């Protein structure tokens, strides 16, 4: 048994048995490879590693300047790796069982106000060929609360234009239905009718909605770039990404009084506790409102 073969088996397990996305698998493997590199330098086999060795590893990455949040994620990946080794009967005792993650405070995600979203969309240059596409992208991100991978893989065949729903393929290939607002649907129809229908679409991408100039599916990086450039154009100081629109979608729903379970369904969260972070955002919003407007605040 070697680190290479163990990691290869772990990767197959994540892909086949847990049906994780490519990005999630890559993150797990990247974290385990960090431990492998550390252990090889000390000539420690993955099957013989101890709790003490793991503590030394955590100390080492901490000294390298790895943040507490990143350390926590790395430890989570390593724990999953050793659970896999136990499941496959390579080891009988889990060395990560008593390994503690560093304490991290709850980091509330950045959100955009409705005015900021309107400004970003208004900054799109509609005279350019990609203008209508980019407007439809931002409207759908905000209207449906999609993850960036869900957006770029969105298919024409999964949109119900009459009923106003889209079928989303989320993490672990789990399907959910997300309502799409009238505004987003309007601009999606404009993009499809006036731009996409006139493109030379590459084979294998005929059903993909959002296409690049060469008629192929957009990449995740391209969506990040579009949003970053628009933020710079309006002088937005917040550090935002496609996920910021998802956070804003959920936060604005909660602030408007939406049921937490309904928001959970629309976001595709497996656990309600993941969705509950937006109730904290809502409480912060209320606190700010009191501070600003109450005479005794």
Q: What is the secondary structure topology, with strand pairs?
A:
Blueprint: H1 3-17, H2 22-41, H3 51-63, H4 68-87, H5 114-122, H6 131-144, H7 148-152, E1 159-160, E2 165-169, E3 175-179, H8 182-194, H9 220-233, H10 242-255, H11 260-267, H12 272-275, H13 277-293
Antiparallel strand pairs: 1-2, 2-3
Helix pairs in contact: 1-2, 2-4, 6-8, 6-10, 10-13
Would you kindly provide a written description of the structure presented here, covering whatever features stand out?
This protein has 297 residues and is mainly alpha-helical. It contains 13 helices and three strands. The protein has two domains: 85 residues, DNA polymerase, domain 1 (Orthogonal Bundle), CATH 1.10.150.130; 179 residues, Orthogonal Bundle (hpI Integrase, Chain A). Strands 1-2-3 form a three-stranded antiparallel sheet. Strand 2 and strand 3 form a beta hairpin. Helix 1 runs antiparallel to helix 2 and helix 2 crosses helix 4. The chain is globular, with a radius of gyration of 23 Å.
